[in-house]
Every structure is written in C-alpha cells, then in structure tokens.
Amino acid sequence: MHLRNWQQTFIDEFPSVIKKYRRFIVKAPTGAGKTVLASEIIDRFYKGKKIIVLCHRLVLLEQLHKALSHKHVVRKLEVSDAGPAFEDYDILLSTSLRAKEVLSDAIAKADVIIIDEAHRVSPNGKGYKRILDAFEEQGKTNAPLIGLTASPERRTGDQRDQLNLAFDAIIDCANIEDLIDEGVLVKPIYRPHFVHDLNLASIDISSGDFPIEKLSNAIIRSSMIDYAIWSYKEERSKLSAEPISAWFCADVSVAEATLSAIEQCGVNAAIVTAKTPIKERMKLLTLHEAGEIEAIVSVGVLAEGWDNPNCNIIVHLRPTLSKVLWGQSVGRGLRSAPGKDRCVVIDVSSNWSTFGPVEKLEWSLWSHRKSYMQFMNRFNWIRQQQDGEDSGDIYLLCKNELSNGTRCSHIYKKGAYDDDTCPVCGTYAAVDIYKEQKLDGTLNENGLHRLFFERVPQIYEDMDMSVWSNLGDMAWRTATLEDQMFLTFCKSFVEVSGEPTKSESDYWDVALAAEARIRAYLVENDLQIVKQEDFDLSVIADGFLAGRKIHTLQAHYGVSVCGSTFNANTREQNERKYQKALKISERLAMMGCSSKDNLPYFNASEHLERGY
Fold this sequence. Notes:
The chain is of the alpha/beta class and 612 residues long. The strands form 4 sheets. Strands 3-4-2-5-6-1-7 form a 7-stranded parallel beta sheet, sandwiched between helices. It has a 6-stranded parallel beta sheet with strand order 8-13-12-9-11-10, sandwiched between helices.
C-alpha cells in the first residue's frame, strides 16, 4: 500500500513510540487517512494478533468494518453476543457499550486497542471508564491503547473527565496546511457573514453551549437561512465542478426549514439525522456522493466519520461554543478529489469569526470550568488578530444594503481587495470590526505579554530586595481577590518549568504539577481563592503598572519574585514560563482553590493528612 508522507513517517517511528508511551493519541486532520494508518499498523506490527477497534457510533462501525475487512478477518460485536472473544477472527469491532462481558474478555486478550474519534473518550463516563479501568487492571503490559482524532480536546470543566487522564501523549502527525501543500486536502475558502438579527446574547449558556431549543427558535426567527441560501446560490455557480454540499443545522426544525428553502431553488436535497435508519442514511449518502443528491442537510450525524471527497461546499447554520464541532464539520469538506481544487465554507453562524479558520485551530488536553466563555464574543478570533489599534490584521464588516432590504454583512480582511471593496457585493460600505465592536475594551493577551517583558526587568532593577524578599506571607494574607489573581500569576511564573516540552501531554504534566504546588502552598497556609466568573488580564497588568486595582505591597512583592526568576532564565525559558503561568492562573481563577480540592493531580485532604 502506498502511504502518504505523514503516514510513512509515523509507521517508521511506531516502534520507538510504543516503547515510550503505552496510551497515546495520533492527531491528524479529517481526511488525512487515519483509518488507513490504523490498518497499516495492524498489518505491519500486529498481523495475526488480537485487536480491538472501538468507536462511539454505529455508522462508524459500518465504515470501519468495510475499510478493515479487505485485509483482515473482522467481527462486528452485536449487543446480544456472548462467549469468549476472538474466536475465528482477528479484529473485534465495537462501540464502548456493546456486549460488556465479551468486550471485557477481549480487553484482557488484546495485543492492541485502537479508538476512533478518541476525543469522545470520557475517562469518567459510563462506557469508556469501564474500558479504561479494565485496560489498566487486566490488559497486557505491552499492549498499547491508540486513539485517533483530528481534535484532541474534550469540552468539559469536569477535572475527572479530561482527555489527559485517558492518554499519556499526543503524537501530532500532520497539519492541514501541510496536507494542502501535498494535495491530500484542498484549501478552504471562507465566506463568513454576520447575521445581525440573530440574537444569541439572551440565551443561557451555563450548560457550555447554546441550548438547542432556544438556539433553533432564534435561528428560525432570524434571516440566517436566507443568508445561507443567497450565499449558496452565488458560490455554487462559481464552481468548476458540480456542486455537492453538506449543511450543518442545529435541530430538525431548522433542517426542515433549510431543506424547504433549498428545494425552492430547484436543488435536489435530503435530510439525515440521528433518527434516520442506518440503511436509509447510507443510501442517501451514497446518492449524495454520486451527485444525484446535491445537498445533504444534517442534524448531528455528519460531523464525524462521514467521508464524501466530492463535497465542495460546507454550509454552517449552527452557532456553537465548541471548536471541536466547528473543526470536525468543516474538515468534512477538505478531502481532495478529481477536479476539486477548493472547498467553499459558507458560515452564517459566526463560528469563523469566533474560532478562526480550521487550519489555525489550537487544541488543549485540559479545560477548566467556563473555558467556553471566551467564545461568547462572536468576534473572538478577530479580536485576537490585533495587537492594538494600528497593528495586526484588520477585518471589515460590510454594511451595504441589498435590494431585499438586508445588509451584505460579509466579513473580509482589510487590504485583501482593491480599494477594500467587499468581494461579495462589490461596494465599499464597511466598518472596522475591531473598533465597531469595541473589541479593545479589555487588555488582550498580546498587550499583557509586551507589558510583562518590558516592565518586570525595568522595575526589578531599581528594587531593594532586602525589603521585599521577606514579605510574601504578609502579601498573601492581606490580599484582596484581585491581589490574589496577580500574586497567583507571579507565583505560577516562578513555580512552573521553563524547559521545552515535547508534546501536549508533557506540557500539561508540567503545568499541572506547578498548579498542584501552588494549591499545596495555599491550603498549607489556610488561604482560599473563590471561584470567579471571569479571568481579567487587566488585573494582572495593573500590578505591573502600579495602577489602581492591585495594592502596593502585592504589586511590589509580585514583581520582586518575577524579576528574580526572570533574570535567572533565558528569554526562551521566560517565554515558556510566561505562557504556562497564564494557563495556571486562569485555571485557579475559574476553579478556585480550597482545602476541599479533590482533583486528579491534587487532593487537599490527603496532602494535609501527610503533614506536608
């Protein structure tokens, strides 16, 4: 089998990887060929051995069965199956909840376990927790647990349900931009529109995302579907190949309204949902791949495991606070195919302006309570692109009124087109989003970074350390909540290692070890940090500016400890320490700290019992 560059590289490195790690995730973009890689791993290293392949959906089972049966004897585990595992077959395919006794028997016998869409692994969930526990207790000591995913992140604040508790490392094998250069994937061409009459501000997001019922009502009342249809009609006419599109909707009511609007344009379309029977679903998807159905309107089923390389338009009609959902769904259109040189991504949900292009997404193995809050600002990514009023990338929002009475509302980059005219409507009636939305209202991360590296060595040089070095206890005990946040950042900068880390998992091992030491210091000294609703960078900046929020004692003591550490390290080490310190201090602010802490990496009561 001819392997792609990244696949061959990983195959060559596989023996050394399994020597170093027992549980790891192989990260590669949607369409990169992770299933082919899994088959090659089995064929090269586990031929004739006992293999388990797990996934979370029935449709994925069908696809994996088809892909792996070419070379191997495969058994798809049924719910009613009983008896010993691996009789007359090499590979056992299953979801995490099927035939528990057979699966338990298989785990003890397996030479390798592979989990597709590994970001779905819940270390504290009903299905995967049982499997992970059995793997640790009964699995062969030399049997690896290999996860496959394009998005190694779980959107949860539950510290006992984090991805790092299931896997030891992430092996980052390929990125979207490299695969585009190699012709494996095609370039996404984004057409984002900001739908002005879509009101999301009043929707309660305490669950971590927009509740489907309220979100759907807001979509139906807005002009979102109209914008999507208008954009689609224009973009499909520009394609050199026949248009094949996938539409991602919030629920069935939105999907049905969307289907009706598509069909009124004379386009052949169909709906697939989680309730569509598998045989009917597969039939519709086959017709879609053949081009007999141009538009597939989806509710919750195409974002993972669906492959149609001919799909050249993605239409996103589901606002979300999950970059996993955004990345997975757009990635479905990036597979290359004969005659396909691009995939047009029509986004009327403000996901592009919230998360950014999928090829730029960054992932994290750990999240904290309310980590999704930054995405409430539907221009979050655009805000991050600017380092101030007169620098960075500027994005414009077209306010030209169209013949139907709506505004164009296309978002585009300043300087990308002649005279900055809108590429959609051909006129200039734009505003600077950064200024219009007042996105510079709070200090951004770039501003704090510049301030920290300028002010700390400058102030520290003039400090009398004989005065400030012994005032730590007083600084902490007299600190207000805002003072605590400043001191937490400073202590994090001191505590965390500035040495390079080789993987995402290593990064978080270092960061959480430092966080645990800070928590230990706080509980030992009977200090508590109350959970907060927001993490305000301007509070930290205030301490370095001798401003109004942070008291003099705390500001000077914090600078003294930062300065001492700053001078003892290289610029590169300080940069790594700074970035980790921001993560740690944000986690402590959002999660709080008390003598009741019971976290996977720090248990306060056990620490106190040991007498520290």
